[in-house]
Amino acid sequence: MIYRLSKIASTGAYLVLIWLTWQWFQGDTHWTFSIGCTIVSGMWLALTAFELGHLFRTYFDILSRLKMLIPILLGTALSGLAAWFGEPLALKVVAGVELLFWLGIYVKYRLNRRRYIKQGHGPLPRGTWVNPPVEAIQEFDLILTSGNIARRLRESVGHGEVAVRMEDGELYFLSSYMETGTVFARAEEVTAKLLRNNHYVVLRPTVSFSDDQRAAVPSLTRILIEQNRLYKETKQARRSAWLNHLPLPQSWRQWLIRKFPVTGYDWTGLLIGQKHSDHWTCVGLCLELYHRLGMKTNQYGTGLFGLGTGLLDPIMPVRFLADPSFRILSEEDKGTI
Q: Which of 33, 47, 206, 250 has the maximal Cβ count within 10 Å?
């Protein structure tokens, strides 16, 4: 509840400020130029300073970086203009103080950036163990990898898999793929494939799992796979029936059925963070497994204003890096193998 209330307040503040800034630029606020610059800059300064701690902790998320850089650029420009053109002297002083605070925030931003290194297309915390061998990966670990989504979003990771141990004692990775839906494969095979084209990092749950939870993993894994298979069959039957009713030649209808199959992947999950019981995105499936085992994590996909709609709030792999339910394997963990 506290998280959702804070998200409502934060989202509301950003939207009000964006609207107020636009109103001022259009000249609808009846403020003089210098006073408007000072007021708008001051409000963005207050909101950015309030959010700064959270934004620093989630620096690897491109949205957090934009929520710092855009206000810094806007606020610095407005404060500078007000300090240069403002009258009377008191207004110049206020604008000058705002400008100093903006410069201070920018200096802190640059210092915080030193805590991260660029890996692939985005930042990772400095000291992160990149591409640990499969021997270092344990059951329940969350493996975050690079790939097409990470490249498009300019982030270090964009795909997730969870390590599960099956009845044969072997370690497997469970995930959901755009082409095939829910799948699992031997850990050695997946890591070998990843090392050819991508990089990966490992997040280890900070909680301990009981023997009963460990014993339930193989059955739970097969239940998830079966639920996804049934979803694909049911959804494909409905889609085929709908396409076959189109007033098109039979060959065209068959081509559409082959061209647009139901893969079992949650395509809407790329934009909406709602969770389902039978089809998922990659990290959506990982979360489903953790939650069915009773593990608590941060809240994901709560949506605009945190109301639970999932709207414009997809479950992004990079955000797990800031989840206190996990710790990222670091260079210091190399000595524990």
A: 47
3-state secondary structure the chain: CHHHHHHHHHHHHHHHHHHHHHHHHHCCCCCCHHHHHHHHHHHHHHHHHHHHHHHHHCCCCHHHHHHHHHHHHHHHHHHHHHHHHCCCHHHHHHHHHHHHHHHHHHHHHHHHHCCEEEECCEEEECCECCCCCHHHCCCCCEEEECCHHHHHHCCCCCEEEEEEECCCCCEEEEEEECCCEEEEEEHHHHHHHHHHHCCEEEEEECCCCCHHHHHHHHHHHHHHHHHHHHHHHHHHHHHHHHHHCCCCCHHHHHHHHHHCCCCCECHHHHCECCCCCCCECHHHHHHHHHHHCCCCCCCCCCCHHHCCCCECCCCCHHHHHHCCCEEECEHHHHHHC
The model's pTM: 0.87
* Cis peptide upstream of residue 88 (ω within 30 degrees of 0): yes
Distance CA 148, CA 130 (A): 18
Distance CA 245, CA 249 (A): 10
Alpha carbon of residue 52 to chain centroid: 18
Q: How far is residue 7's CA from residue 12's CA, in Å, rounded to a whole number?
A: 8
Phi-psi region of 199 (alpha: psi -120 to 50; beta: other; left: phi over 0): beta
- Per DSSP, what are the bridge partners of residue 84? none
CA atoms within 13 A on the CB side of 229: 7
What pLDDT is recorded for position 288? 95
| Alpha-carbon distance values, 69 to 6, 73, 322 (Å) | 22, 6, 20
Nearest residue to 273 via CA among 313, 319, 323: 313
Rounded average pLDDT over 314-335: 91
Class of domain 122-336: alpha beta
Residue by residue, what is the 3-state secondary structure of 144-161? Answer: EECCHHHHHHCCCCCEEE
